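Batch manifest, entry 17 of 40.
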Amino acid sequence: MKKKLNNIYFKVGLTVFLVVAASILFYYLIFHGSNFKDNLGILTDILMPVIFGLGMGYLLTPVLNFLETQVLTPLCNLCGLRESRFRKKLIRGVGILLTTLLFFLLIYSIIAMLLSQIVPSIQSIVANFDVYLNNMTAWLNNLLANNPEIRDYALQVVNQYSGELEDWINNLVMVIARSSDLIFRLSMSIINMLKVFWNFILGFIISIYVLSSKECFAGQAKKIVYALFERDTANIIINDFRFIHKTFIGFVGGKILDSIIIGIICFVCTTIMNTPYAALVSVIIGVTNIIPFFGPFLGAIPSTILIFVVDPGHPLNSLYFVIFILILQQFDGNILGPKILGNSTGISGFWVIFSITLFGGLFGVLGMIIGVPFFAVIYASVKSIINSILRKKNMPMSTADYFDVGLIDEEGFHPYTPDSKISLKEKKQLQEAHYPCFGERMYSSVDDIRTDTAYYEQKRKSWATKNETTKNKAAENRASESRTSESRTSESRAPESEKTGKGRNGKQGG
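Output type: C-alpha cells
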C-alpha cells in the first residue's frame, strides 16, 4: 500500500484529479452560483439546530471554564476531594448546571425587562400616537409659518414625492385587501417563529453535549490535523486556530459585556435626566453598541427622533440626549472599551470601518458584528505570510522601516523624499536639471532606477554642500561687517577722547 501511495504515477494522477475537480467546482460557482446558493441554503436550514448548538456552546465555554477553574475546583480542594474521575465528572456536571442556570437567568432578565419596561413603553407610544402626531403637526405648522423659505422647500419636496407615496399607500391597501394573502403571511410568520424556537431548543440541548465533551472534540480535531499534515504544518495550523479562537472569543465576549455595561449606564443617566422611555432608549443603545463604530450612531438616531416626537415643544431634551450619547461613546471608546477588549483585533480604525462595510453588505447585521474579528484573522494571516517571506530575504519586518524607502539594493535602503516634502528651491533645481523623480515616470529596469537614484543623491549632496558653503560665506560676511562697523565706531570715539584730553592738558599748562 505504501509503494502504491509513493508511486509517481499515483501522485500525478491525484494532482490531475484535484485540479480538474477544482476547475469544475470553480466553473459551477461562476455560472451556476444561484443553484449552489439555494442548495447551501437548504443545507443550512437542515443544520440550523446544530449551528445554534455550536454557537451557544462556544459562547458559553468561557463561563464554564471560569466556574470550573475559579469556583468549583477550589471548592473541591477545600472539601478535601482528591483528584479522580468522579471529581472531574462532578465538576463538569455542576459547572454545566450552573452555566445553564446563568444562561436561563439572563434570558429571564431580558424577558422580564421587556415585559415590565419596554412593552409598556411601546404600548404608551401606540396609545398616545395621536397626541404625538398632533404635537408634531403643530410644531411643523409653527415652523413653516415663521419660515417661508422652509415652507416653500417642504411643499416642493411633498409635491415631488407625493406620487410615490400615493402608489405605496395604494399597494399597501391592495395587500391588506387580500385577506387570504395576509392570513397566509401571518401564518407563515408564526410558523417561522415556532421553527426558530424549536431550533433554539434543539440547539440548547446540543450545546450541553458540546460543553460536556469539548475536550474530546478538541482532541479529535487535533488528531485529524496531525494525521493529515506534516508535524510542523500541523503545529502551525493548531497554533493559528488558537489565535482565531482568542480573537473571536475575546472580541465577541468583550463586546457583549461592554454593551451590557453601556446599556446600564445609559438607563441610569437617562432616568436621572427624566428622558422619555428611558428603558426603551437604553435597550436600543445597548443592543446597537454591539456593532463596532457604526452601532452608536445606529442607536442614537432613532432614539433621538423618538425623544423629539414625544415632546417637540422642548427640543433641548433631544439635544441633551445627543450630548450625553457623545460623552458616553467617548467614555466607551477611550476608557471602557480598551479596558475590556484591549487589543483583541490588532487592526487600525480604517480596517475596522472597511470590515464592517464589507461584511455588513454581504451578511447584514451578523456580518457587521463578526466582520471585525473575521477580518482581523485574515489580516493576521496575510501579515504572517508577508513577514515569513521577508524573513527569508533577510529584510526588516517592521512597517516603519519602509516609510521612506525609494530603492533597496545590495548596499541597503535608499531613501525617497516625496515631492511634497522637497523645498521650493530644490524643486526648482530638479526641474532645471530635468531629473525624473520617483513617481514621475515608469521604469522597466532596475538599473535605470539605480542610475537615477545615484544621480539624485549626488545632486542632493552637491546642493546641500553648496547651500552650506553659501550659508558659511554669508555668516563670514556678516561677521566681517560687524567687526568693521565696530572698528569704525571705536575709531570715531577715539579722536573725541584725545581732543578732550588735549584741551584739559592745555588748560592745566596755562
